[in-house]
Fold each of these.
Amino acid sequence: MKDILSAPFLIEMVRTTTNMYAHGWDERNGGNISLLLDEAEVSEYLAMQPLRTLETGFTAPELDGKIFLVTGTGKYFKNVQYAPEVNLGIVRLIENGTKAELLWGYSDGGKFTSEFPAHMMSHVARLGVDPENRVVMHCHPANLLAMTYVHDLDEKAFTRTLWQMCTECLVVFPDGVNVLPWMLCGTNEIGEATAKKMETARLVVWSQHGIYGAGKDLDETFGLIETAEKAAEIYLKIAHLPLVNTITDEQMHLLEQRFGVKGREGYLA
Ligand code: 13P
Ligand code: ZN
């Protein structure tokens, strides 16, 4: 049996949480990540014997038998690199997703993130549109969060503003950014609402809270959030100044042609 701490998926998770903390996106226990793992790969490292069984509080039959590496609730991203086994866990969903067998981690008696419903329901939604999706990532980047206090929360308006802030935004997230109003976090309700929004975009803003991203690997998902956050930062730098120039819709169409992408239907003139 190979050492789990040498598993590429674990190393990548440690690097990602450390990097997200360094970006200031994950104060205290803020943020959480879930990564869908390949069973054959995991079994190179683990005996696959459940250590404990946890209740999930929801049903997700589509995920039955699926294995995820998930950050622990109340755990600090800054600490993951020093104690992966305490701050992370590997779980296998069973019984229509109503239960999760702990295969490794949460070694201080902890459990998966309180946002487990939003993560698992978002995986179901994203796998429905993209079978390659592996990651759901949540964090609290300051500029996107700040933007939800001063910008119209209409999804088209919010997306268009972000697209206009950096030339590459349309290329990186042509599907745009969906937006939820403030809702109580850690509930099945916000999980269901997030998953619904995930059907049409890989980024979902939680107003006055943070953002969710989804993608095929940790790097891509990090980059997605990073790009939107950079755009929000530029917006906050210029929002109070007279706007003299912008990226026009005509220029956006040139980007679509050059990079072979298509902006969300109806979002460009
Ligand atoms: P957890 O510590 O339960 O992951 O919660 C952090 C968070 O960001 C809640 O939205
Ligand atoms: Zn949060």
Note: The beta strands are 32-37, 52-55, 67-71, 88-94, 99-105, 135-139, 177-180, 203-206, 210-215.
Amino acid sequence: MIGVLASGSGTNLQALLDADLPVAAVASNVGSARALERARAAGVPTAVFALENYATREERDDAMGEWLAGHDVELVVCAGYMHLLTAGFLARFPAINVHPSLLPAFPGMNAVQEALAAGATETGVTVHFVDDGVDTGPIIFQETVSVLRGDTRETLHARLQEIEHRLLPEAARLYVAGALRSAAE
Ligand code: GAR
């Protein structure tokens, strides 16, 4: 079973749901995340693990890990999840992340804006296994996108998201089918 972590609008979560992947649980660090509404609409259990409700990040991730394990989660997919995961959490679950740049270029939360600001002529999408760095870990897929004259953060991100919505479900599908394993397994 797949557990999805999402902090925002949840279009990547929607792509996973639309691909009929076995999403058993959706957790967020943000109670108002639209991703939670998408999960509820699909009948998938949700929970919020806001950092401010725990003494430490480790305690928060331990609680989130317990909840996910209680829903038989074996693979975690980060679909716009904007917090780092602790080493303890990552020792418990393999995790896949999607990121809107050609990593290692432009890690972090503002990858699209930073690619534009740097004058990059190409950027892209990376799907990778998660380690305890910021948008690091073994790469599963990368696909390049040209930056067009006149692109804004919105227009470029929209083209990148079309690719994300194809590559992230494909990586999850391969993992569930047993065709993909992280180096740690
Ligand atoms: C996606 O573009 C994803 O690549 C990015 O957040 C967006 C979430 O969109 N993730 C990161 O920047 C991770 N560092 P969504 O909520 O519509 O799926």
Note: The chain has one domain: 2-176.
Amino acid sequence: MKVITKIAEMQKEADQLRIQEKKISLVPTMGYLHEGHLSLVREARARSDVVVMSIFVNPSQFGPSEDFKDYPRDFNHDVELARSAGCDIIFYPDAQEVYPEPYLTYVEVERLTKVLCGVSRPTHFRGVTTIVAKLFNIVKPQLAVFGQKDAQQAIVIKRMVKDLNYDIEIIVAPIIREKDGLAMSSRNTYLTKAQRIQATVLYQSLMVAKKMIDAGERKATIIKKRMRDLIEQQPDAIVDYIEIVDTTTLESQTALNGEVLIALAVKVGKPRLIDNIIVRVLERTINTESLK
Ligand code: PAF
């Protein structure tokens, strides 16, 4: 496995691979890898000839009061994990290489970035789309793999790819969970022991929502209230948002119908955790037999 730190070298490598007609896949990460990231590498491995993982804690997607400085980092461990999952190249640039001064150009997807996480993190997605667009130009992949845990991010990136005519297939891989349901995240490491237990309430609340829908509830307000009540029983949990939205437009739904994304962000102590599920809401059919 190669580690490349310079943009020019990565671009040259990508050009060589393309001349050899190799299919390149990109798995963009901020490092501090866990099983969730490794599942993305395996997905990429199965669909391409050369898997490139980028490891870059991207300053432009953190707000001024967010955890850029504290974000967990362990490059040597990441290298071992990436190798074991079948990665071929790690692209590991520093901030100076990616954003040389003066840096003036950003990529912004409108509307989709103003809801859900975009409300409390107004500059976050601009940073994400800028770095992902740059990585696409540097690694030159035919395919890129993202995780469903960052559902809004995946939708925003798909929109960017469509709107900017990138010839890149976007694969969204399922959320990988701990045994008790907590979605894997590098930020789980911030949780104290007590908060780690409390954090399972995110997934529990999503399961409650699904049960309510399966039992026939179609009013989003009622489902969201039940989820909030459950989460707020945990002493360290502060709800940022609980939303039920359309899976492509991210428009808020009131009377549920078709495929919906139930997404939430909750601060549990220091970290702000996100999670989501997609539920297919079936049209309610009245069992006329039982009315006879
Ligand atoms: O999902 C992440 O880890 C980041 O947002 C990404 C896509 C690597 C961009 O920095």
Note: The first strand starts at residue 2 and ends at 4.
Amino acid sequence: MGIAVSPIQIDSRVSDFISKPRKMLIDGKWMDAASGKTFPTYNPATGEVLAQVAEGDRQDIDAAVQAARKAFDSGPWSQMTPSDRGKLIWKLADLMEQHLEEFATIETLDNGKPLTVARAADVPLAIDMFRYMAGWATKLEGTTIPISMPHAANSSYFAYTLREPVGVVGQIIPWNFPLLMAAWKLAPALACGCTVVLKPAEQTPLSALFLGELFVEAGFPNGVVNIVPGFGETAGAALAAHELVDKIAFTGSTEVGKLIVNAATGNLKKVSLELGGKSPNVVFKDADLNGAISGSASAIFFNQGQTCCAGSRLFVERSVFDQVIEGVAAKAKKINVGSGLEPKTAMGPLVSEEQLQRVCNYLEIGLSEGATAVTGGKKMGDSKGYFVEPTVLVNTKDDMRVVQEEIFGPVVTAVPFDDPEELMARANSTIYGLAAGIWTKDISKAHRLAASLRAGTVWINCYNVFDAALPFGGYKQSGWGREMGKDVLQLYTQTKAVCTRL
Ligand code: NAI
Ligand code: MG
């Protein structure tokens, strides 16, 4: 199958932005890497170099951490009222909205995702996250606590708690939702009064750097937000290990999550992790099958399957198995795969050559272990872009690698089930616990199952619903802590108890 990549007129601000090597933001200034090195970022639809970016390493991370430390310990940020902090975050969101089109185009060029999706989902959700968190800046409250002190009954005390920012935060984010992940991390940290060093993924550094320009324009004091692009093993590792960083927040693979935990032991910095998933999506025979079929297809194929909570293990009640699989496969075949810039594209390329290899490798493993592809099963066409066919695998066994391991591509494995009890054990039997889906009209059954699924999010008759107010995160090896909603404030504040003898 051929893949259309027609030349498309790109906004002049965007072409200007990508035509120059992009620098890193440290202490309010745009800097080259101390080493002078740059690295290329690629357009995944064509495999061509898109832009050159300053390659941060230990020295740059150190400069950024020092700037964040100074801004936290003594800069104007620490004196700013919560209301002014909230206003500044809101102002950033307004600026982002003015540049929505540029953000969406940069995201599509750098990550590959359809422009229609970046425009309708990634960028508006990122903006909304800043607005939602701007409101929390003024609502971080402690409590007053009555003290009994039974062994000193004659004395009395007045005690209260303060919620204080945790300090300098290092944030390491992935490439699947580059701008949105930056927003999930930056917005709550800033609302809580922390200062930040953000390291975007090496595959997709551009939207975070564009966002950096708006932080400067909005008037954030120097050093409050520092953005250092670079590789994981160098810049990322230096940030995770830095002695002056109070907390590290990471989204990415479970494997690297464990490295982050180890790196954090030096100064026992706080750690939060949002890691991989292999989420079960369960369709019962009493579901609205049309809704379940479209929902199950988009649960896996959204964002080229590069979603940590993708519904990648489909369980279908046996009597409707054939019908549901046929339906999902038919949806898969109809997906318009192509360059994200094409208006009719519904699925773009994978993010990188490496990710394409990884996904194709899993497809080969699955097929050689006995799975059958109802549709898809390989790289798509002979394009230089990183396109892979939307794939539905059947005849899988629960212990196969394609069923146990995160593929992070448009590949779903589907199995029938008979008994709901046995189903629960199978649904929970991976190392992950990020999300799950349930499709049924029986609400009691749905809520019973929701309680027994070991997952941080359960969607009932829907999938991939995200909201700034709804906490998100993992059970088991899918992570530590919850992002978004009120819960995330726990990650960026700490409690101080103050006790006075009266
Ligand atoms: P990764 O976990 O290596 O990369 C994520 C981020 O961590 C990037 O910013 C990277 O530069 C950084 N990083 C890498 N090694 C590091 C280290 N030693 N110290 C500090 N930071 C480090 O993920 P990768 O290699 O891009 O993808 C591999 C697999 O990870 C994917 O196939 C997928 O299964 C999973 N993944 C999960 C994501 C999620 O949203 N939970 C996002 C991206 C990948
Ligand atoms: Mg990696």
Note: The longest strand covers residues 157-165.
